Automatic annotation (TrEMBL):
Compartments reported by the entry: Membrane
Primary localisation category: membrane
Annotated organism of origin: Characodon lateralis
The entry's keywords: Membrane, Transmembrane, Transmembrane helix, Transport
Transmembrane segments: 20-39
Topology versus the membrane: Multi-pass membrane protein
Annotated protein name in UniProt: Solute carrier family 25 member 44b
Length: 315
């Protein structure tokens, strides 16, 4: 009975890679579109001084909706879709590193921790320049006074360019002010945020899934248990890494150069509570994200199983 309840992990060598990547792009795009408004709100909450603009997550949501409409919740989204590349790089690195580490250790926690941290390192190297631009776009509208760069209006119409015109506008300003290095502003802070986040998330995900499997009825589908474990792991990882995420957002949006100095100033101005800014928005966004990611990712792996293995697995 206990053996039956163990949740089987589909490893890299079990997958049909063509199916895996085809379905993966669609899944990643759907997830990003679903959670993007919460990401935008989190960024504005983290960058504002005290509660100068919004008093909390829901206050920010309704104020942005009233002042900027639904489009305001998706500022910078088109640029952010380029993180599809980093998403595929993350998945590939995670699976390959798991396979490599398994040669030296069969401990699932060790494999998940090392693979998660490695995958985040690769993904952030691709993501940071995209984040720098998309975060500047996120801050336009009600939050534009909090950022270094504002969209320049068309001299003839008085209106700012649309979509990719806005992107070119911001990219040009970043390059003019900081050169190529400007697109990697906050890179160290991002690594210090997302490598631990990823390294913590995967071990806790597998831990919570196994614990739930011991408590659940024997006929409970594994996917339901995994969908419950995902948000628990996400909340744990978000709470642990949120202080660094606040620092990362300020470094990237405000154009700071020192992670340590940004951290010190945050503590000085807003105390330890400043380190929790955006945490509720982060957990709110990470909960549905985790559910969608887990259900999507585990389903993706099952759909991508090599045909000869389909009937050998108990779900």
């Amino acid at each position: 009975m206990q053996q039956k309840r163990n949740i089987q992990i589909i490893e890299w060598e079990d997958l049909d890679k063509r199916k895996f990547y085809s379905f993966g792009v669609f899944m990643t795009m759907t997830i990003r579109a679903t959670v993007y408004p919460a990401t935008l709100i989190r960024t504005r909450l983290q960058v504002q001084k005290g509660k100068s603009l919004y008093s909390g997550t829901f206050d920010a949501f309704f104020k942005i909706l009233r002042a900027e409409g639904v489009r305001g919740l998706y500022r910078g989204f088109m640029v952010n879709t380029f993180t599809l590349i980093s998403g595929q790089a993350y998945i590939t690195t995670y699976e390959l590193v798991r396979k490599y580490v398994s040669q030296y250790s069969e401990d699932n926690t060790v494999k998940s921790l090392v693979a998660g941290g490695s995958a985040s390192l690769v993904a952030q190297s691709i993501t940071v320049p995209i984040d720098v631009v998309s975060q500047q776009l996120m801050m336009q509208g009600q939050g534009q006074h909090l950022t270094r760069f504002q969209l320049r209006s068309n001299s003839e119409t008085g209106k700012s360019a649309k979509v990719f015109g806005q992107t070119r506008n911001i990219v040009a300003q970043i390059f003019a002010a900081d050169g190529f290095r400007g697109f990697y502003r906050g890179y160290v802070a991002s690594l210090l945020t997302y490598i631990p986040n990823s390294a913590v998330w995967w071990p806790f995900y597998h831990f919570y899934a196994e614990q739930l499997s011991k408590l659940a009825p024997s006929d409970c589908p594994h996917l339901i248990l995994q969908a419950m474990a995902g948000p628990l792991a996400a909340a744990t990882a978000s709470t642990v890494t949120n202080p660094m995420d606040v620092v990362r957002a300020r470094v990237q949006v405000e154009g700071r150069t020192s992670v340590i100095e940004t951290f010190r100033q945050l503590i000085k101005e807003e105390g330890c509570l400043g380190l929790t800014k955006g945490l509720s928005a982060r957990i709110i966004s990470s909960t549905p994200t985790a559910i969608v990611i887990v259900v999507g990712y585990e389903t993706l792996k099952k759909l991508s199983l090599r045909p000869e293995l389909v009937d050998s697995r108990h779900w």
